[in-house]
Design brief:
It is a single chain. The protein is of the alpha/beta class and 337 residues long. It is built from 13 helices and five strands. The protein has two domains: 61 residues, Helicase, Ruva Protein, domain 3; 206 residues, CRAL-TRIO lipid binding domain (Phosphatidylinositol Transfer Protein Sec14p, 3-Layer(aba) Sandwich), CATH 3.40.525.10. It has a five-stranded mixed sheet with strand order 1-2-3-4-5, with helices on one face. Helix 1 runs parallel beside helix 4 and helix 8 packs across helix 12.
């Protein structure tokens, strides 16, 4: 892994002092009072190349200005029934904090369907969670734990992963590209739990395509991962799908609904949704909120090769399992009757 030196940071900082005023404002929203840490993240993402890191960061700032990302936390997804449908089909939440104070972000990758709204709503929802994490959750954690906290832990539940996951690759590639280009180095570790054979097959293909820096962050845990995860977090912060073998993600909670961090009724999503509505009221006190997604320009990245490799692997697995040509075409084309 490249060593980020003080000379690199000094050179990068000098270059950033020359950016235009609109970019300086959104830059403040990114660094939240810790500009050196932000520069270090972008340098890591570009292997210590100052020029490439500067271009990456300025491209990110321009993307934020052009797409009004600074205002996205004042753009609620309405009506609430639509937002609940998005939460039921985009299984993401926050279950707590690690022992070191890092937010634990949980993702139900296996059962996420992205089938209740347009791609723009899902992208809006994803960016809102990113911005809420960076502008609210992480600053609060920094204050609580008495040290700068700028990264999180992500736990991916692969329960229910099927060949039909191919339908989601385009949207997943868009979301991954947004994160790679505009929120680099925000995840400390990626934990994979409840992984079926189909994931293992895809992982063997994808792993060599990933940057070494990313590969080192991925940990594939046995079963639900409870024993390993309890070494770095308390039971209360453990995602619900890790608390017992075979529990897995659920689109709808069982037992105590509050325990399901994917649910709109979970405290994280309740706080997030309340925050967005409050910001909307502050900024649009004299205007009625209108229904409609917040369109964001999708960035381009190098993830297409990875998506293509996953697609080929799923197609091969489908052929091995005797999928008929008609069903195979339905999956590949992303169509359903």
């Amino acid at each position: 892994m490249v060593l980020i030196t003080e000379e690199m940071l000094k050179q990068f900082q000098t270059m950033m002092e020359k950016i235009d005023e609109p970019l300086k404002i959104t830059y403040q929203n990114i660094h939240q009072g810790y500009p050196a840490a932000t520069l270090r993240r972008f340098l890591k993402a570009r292997d210590g190349n100052v020029s490439k890191a500067h271009k990456m960061l300025t491209d990110c700032l321009n993307w934020r200005v052009q797409n009004e990302i600074d205002n996205i936390l004042a753009k609620p997804i309405i009506p609430s029934d639509l937002y609940r449908a998005i939460r039921d089909s985009q299984l993401v939440g926050m279950s707590g904090y690690s022992k070191e104070g890092l937010p634990v972000i949980s993702i139900g990758a296996g059962l996420t369907t992205f089938d209740k709204a347009s791609i723009h709503y899902y992208v809006q929802s994803h960016i809102q969670m990113n911005e809420y994490r960076d502008r609210v959750i992480l600053p609060a954690a920094t204050k609580k734990y008495g040290r700068h906290i700028s990264t999180c832990i992500k736990v991916f539940d692969m329960t229910g992963l099927k060949l039909s996951a191919l339908n989601q690759i385009k949207l997943l590639t868009v979301i991954t590209s947004i994160d790679d280009l505009n929120y680099p180095e925000k995840t400390e570790t990626y934990f994979i739990v409840n992984a079926p054979y189909i994931f293992s097959a895809c992982w063997k293909v994808v792993k060599p395509l990933l940057h070494e820096r990313t590969r080192k962050k991925v940990q594939l845990l046995s079963g639900c991962g409870k024993d390993e995860l309890l070494k770095i977090m308390d039971n209360d912060s453990l995602p619900h799908f890790c608390k017992r073998e075979g529990s897995g993600s659920t689109k709808h909670s069982t037992g105590e609904r509050i325990d399901n961090c994917f649910s709109l009724d979970h405290y994280f999503h309740q706080q997030l949704y309340s925050y967005v509505k409050e910001q909307a009221n502050i900024q649009q006190s004299d205007a009625l909120l209108k229904q409609g997604s917040f369109h964001v320009k999708f960035p381009e990245s190098d993830d297409a090769k990875i998506a293509e490799s996953i697609e080929c692997t799923l197609q091969r697995l489908g052929a091995q399992n005797g999928l008929s040509n008609s069903f195979h075409n339905v999956i590949v084309d992303g169509k359903s009757s």
